[in-house]
Amino acid sequence: MPRTEAASAERPTLEACYVEHRALVFHRCLRYGAGDVAFAEEVTQDVFLKLMEHLPHLRDAHDLGGWLHRVAANLAISRLRREKSLLGKLQSLWSTSQYEGESAHGVVERKQIADQVLDTLATLPARERVVICMKLLDGASQREISRALELSEGYVSKLLQRGLRRIAAAGWEVDDVEG
Amino acid sequence: MSKGSFRRALADADRNLAAVKLSFARDTRIRAAFTTPRHVGWRVPALACAIALGVFIAVFVLRRDEPPLTAFQPMPPSVGWRAHGDELEVVAPSLVVDAGGFGRITAQRGARFVRVADGVRVLRGRVDFEVAHRSAVPALVHVSHGTIAVLGTRFTVDQRADGGRVVLHEGKIRFASGERTVVLAPGQSLDWPLAPPAPPAPPIAPAPLPKRAPTSAVREQQADPEPAQPAPPAFDIDKLLTELASLRARGRYADAVTMLEHALAEPLPTPTLERLSYELGAIETYQLARTDRACRHWRTHRERFPQGRYGDEIEAAIRRLGCKDTP
């Protein structure tokens, strides 16, 4: 898992942390949202608001990148689950701020295959989606994923297998993915 | 048909996603959040509102029957009273006083009363009380020979030098004097000092036959071995009063009026008739608030019982109704 070291031994300022990590955090949130820009922006904002709250007390400030990654993954899972619930669907009916901004599908519209893969990703349940992204894009081991999401390794393995089965059922090849 | 390797396709899509940047608007909003007070979401205000609502209900709804007792506030401000220390003496024809946390007091000229910690003490004169509803701790009205405990009602106290009287118009009051306690229902009155308790009843003897003036026919019948025919049943006033109290307690005032009208047609002793007539007028005045009928009834009542016992109470009722043509 890539890590970003803090610029100095002393505790960095919030603004400095934001400038340094915002792009990476937003990119990860885009993955977990299967390219949904509005979703990624909301989660990114939540991540840095969490950081604002925790920065003065953060013990592993030198591993801020790892902390932000864990927080982003967990906040993305929470938000995906909330939006999938009936209440989330109802809220989305009258929420105007949820889908502002440019669509990632618009950015990748010329790449049909990318659309399809993001569509498939979007069909996965929240935890399976995040686990698949961490495994396939970040190259994280099951142990690293289990630590980041505070889940057991066995459960992560089960999520991974379940996700891959769904992806295969959608017509993709998953033989090159280690289980 | 296979779509190809998911891993490779995902990696390609991810490269495209990497080109997407956080929007300027969102970037500005996040930076602004760093310098403005922390966003607390809707849960904290909602919780605060729920707590505030709970406190409001506890204080103003559940316990509204026990407001703090405050000093007298004559309303409107007038010169109709004179102070003797803490005591108020009414010098106007009548004076309305707002006894905060207790209710409203309407005192007639010459009445003298004082606010005490648990209620009001009437020293003399005629005072009408409208006590705000209380569910737990009763308000107390102290008089010369006892204490009246009230849980929201209207009644009149007339305190004289040697005793007094209370007439209950609505609700229920309990008069306590020493070891004795009397509960009054609407329309009932009580005089104090209380009469000494009756001695134990003698052993029940067989009921005597109704006494009648011996007539020649009766004398003839006395010699007749045939048993005498039973007398027609007497009108049971106690049963009527019990039934009346029951109807009032259930709020069936119209039925109570009908029952009283029938009873008033019975050949009853004048004091009983006067009492029943007064009960009927009180219901029309205070419970049914039928002004025309009540005024007409009081006019008839005064004509029928010109030296009646309820003169003051009827005067108060007529004043309340605002009867125009009643002398």
Walk me through this protein's architecture.
- The complex is a heterodimer of chains A (179) and B (327).
- Chain A has 179 residues and is mainly α.
- Chain A has a single domain (3-92, 102-169), classed as Butyryl-CoA Dehydrogenase, subunit A, domain 3, CATH 1.20.140.
- Chain A has helices at residues 14-32, 37-54, 64-84, 86-94, 104-107, 112-123, 126-136, 142-149, 153-169.
- Chain A is globular and about 45 Å long.
- Chain B is built from nine helices and 14 strands.
- In chain B, strands 1, 2, 3, 4, 5, 6, 7, 8, 9, 10, 11, 12, 13 and 14 form a 14-stranded mixed sheet that branches.
- In chain B, strand 10 (153-159) and strand 11 form a beta hairpin.
- The longest helix of chain B is centred in the first third of the chain and has 20 residues, at 43-62.
- Mean pLDDT of chain B is 76; it is low at 63-70 and 201-228.
Count every helix of chain B, treating DSSP H or I runs of 4 or more residues as helices.
9
Integer-rounded radius of gyration of chain A: 17 Å
SS-derived structural category of chain A = mainly alpha
In helices, the fraction of residues of chain A equals 55-70%
Number of strands of chain A: 0
Helical content of chain B (DSSP H or I, runs of 4+) = 25-40%
Low-pLDDT residue intervals, each spanning 5 or more residues of chain A = 1-9, 95-102
Oligomer: heterodimer
How many β-strand runs of chain B? 14
SSE string of chain B: HHHEEEEEEEEEEEEEEHHHHHH
What is the name of the CATH class of chain A? Answer: Mainly Alpha
Q: Termini of chain A, distance in Å?
A: 18 Å
Shape estimate of chain B: elongated
CATH topology of chain A: Butyryl-CoA Dehydrogenase, subunit A, domain 3
Which H/E pattern describes the elements of chain A?
A: HHHHHHHHH
**Biggest β-sheet of chain B, characterized?**
14 strands, mixed
Distance linking N and C termini of chain B: 108 Å
Q: Count up the domains of chain A.
A: 1
